[in-house]
Design goal:
mainly alpha, 15 helices, flat, 3 domains
Length: 275
């Protein structure tokens, strides 16, 4: 529940993921205290969270690892009367929680259930276009959001997204990132300033290519949870510390010929080029 609250209080755009995220969370809460077959075979909007016919036996209610470990201690497990009362209160809490979620969110909402296909990742996915080759049905139910005369133009633009090769875009980004890695290790790049710029670019690119949304690290550091970049960062760290000593005469730097010609290698320019 805490993670769900944090997610909906996020400062980033989450509209495209709201339906799927809330649907998964609602099912998870239901399965904590209700029969699995009932939840799995019934339309989500038709489930009655307060129907005690489908409640699990009290000793099968799920409370989480920490609580379940705690109630197994002799000082607690010996008090069966208290445990029965505790199980009943928890089941009531789950029931009220799910009832209130159902009151506040319409799981049959057509727009919110389809809006996830417009996220960049899904919009460029071939599987999405196999399922939604045209926006005709969606446009027919969202006329209040757009001018009717623009429907064909909108649908044409949607269908053109199928021609974009997302694999080539991904490969281009990886190639540029690998070039910066070569700069970092290259013999001609001895100036620490250039190496730090290259490392900064690698961090920025890796955090975009491997966002790892489930990571608890700040976004710029999430790439560290991806094993190859963690090893790279650890291997570079001693050199970074060593080169923080003042340089009386900065060594000469000659950029490799295979890199694009630039007046400088400021990371902001490189990062902007990849947007």
């Amino acid at each position: 529940m805490t993670n769900l609250n944090q997610y909906f209080q996020s400062d980033k755009i989450i509209l495209q993921d709201v339906h799927n995220r809330l649907t998964d969370a609602y099912k998870d809460f239901l399965l904590c205290y209700m029969n699995n077959r009932y939840v799995s075979t019934t339309e989500l909007s038709s489930i009655d969270p307060a129907n005690k016919t489908w409640f699990l036996p009290k000793n099968q209610v799920y409370f989480g690892i920490n609580v379940m470990s705690e109630i197994k201690k002799p000082i607690i497990s010996e008090r069966q009367d208290l445990l029965d009362h505790f199980f009943e209160r928890c089941q009531q809490f789950y029931s009220v929680l799910c009832v209130e979620i159902k009151k506040r969110y319409d799981f049959d909402n057509f727009i919110l259930s389809k809006i996830h296909i417009f996220s960049p990742k899904k919009a460029l996915c071939h599987q999405t276009h196999e399922q939604y080759s045209s926006l005709c049905d969606i446009l027919a139910k969202t006329k209040r959001f757009h001018d009717t005369i623009d429907e064909q133009l909108i649908d044409d633009e949607w269908r053109l997204l199928r021609t974009i090769n997302s694999v080539q875009i991904h490969q281009k980004k990886l190639k540029l990132m690998l070039q910066m890695i070569l700069i970092f290790f290259g013999e001609n790049c001895l100036h620490m300033k250039m190496k730090l710029e290259a490392l900064f670019f690698i961090i920025c690119r890796a955090s975009r290519l491997f966002p790892l949304e489930n990571s608890r690290l700040p976004r710029p550091l999430r790439f560290l949870t991806f094993p190859p970049f963690l090893l790279l960062f650890l291997s570079l760290w001693p050199e970074v510390i060593t080169h923080f000593r003042p340089l009386s005469q900065p060594p000469h730097y000659s950029p490799p010929s295979e890199l694009p010609k630039r007046t400088n290698l400021r990371c902001g320019v490189w990062v902007d080029d990849l947007q």
